[in-house]
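Feature request, filed as a ticket because there's no other form

It would be nice if the structure record came with a short human-readable summary line next to the tokens. Right now we just get the raw output. Example of a typical job, pasted below so the devs can see what we mean:
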Amino acid sequence: MNVQWYPGHMTKAKRMMQEDIKLIDLIIELVDARVPLSSRNPDIDELGKNKSRLILLNKSDLADERQNEAWSEYFKEKGFFVAKINSKSGAGVKAVNGVIQEACKAKIQRDRRRGIKNRPIRAMVVGIPNVGKSTFINTFAGKACAKTGNKPGVTKGKQWIRLNKGVELLDTPGILWPKFEDQKVGIRLAMIGSIKDEILNIDELSLLLIQYLIEQYPGALAKRYDIEEAGKPVEMLEAIAESRKCLLKGGELDYSKAAALLIDDFRNGKIGRITLEQA
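Raw output as currently delivered:
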């Protein structure tokens, strides 16, 4: 399965980020806790060297908690500050302000020594499409100041958002790199909804998800769909179609409907808390 998606406005966004990085004290990078590495853009490390860094493990309520802890440790060891959040429900968002202050402690102290007081920390919010950036900004700011949508690529321009006296945020469009070096990255992103479904083979994607769940989360499919976990992924998809009465006219099984149902259930956390990358 070959996945590629790189809308034109993303190239422009990368250039904008290169220009804006000079104004920034801190880069706040949202990643999807279910795919913490695959949902990172490697360009951001290059763009943001010499800047304080904060990683927000968003949608952490949908991810395996043991893996959330393991990934938090992984990023901390690499010198990042980390917080687990759910931007939709607001869980963990209040704590982010304290982490921002901690991440920029050296900068605040430097400013004080120079006699500069009360200059707000300027942070850039970055992340690949559909990772929850706009929802995080709205929840963090307490008002709808960034456009949100459940489709990748809603934020197309940049805007400064004053949160409080201490923090200003620069929102940027989601950026996805033009070529996935590893196709598994593209597949994981497709599974969480960061790539437009219209260009994907959902049937094939569902079989790959079934294979992964059997290996890493045995029993999860059996519990959700009241089926036996036996046989090949295509036989499991057939069992899901039977269990959920996914039928075509004439009573034949509708594999595509079952595949879409499975992917949807995974994305909404109905199969359980699942992380697609093991730390």
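Something like this underneath would help us a lot:
DSSP finds eleven helices and six strands in the chain.
The CA atoms of residues 63 and 273 lie 5 Å apart.
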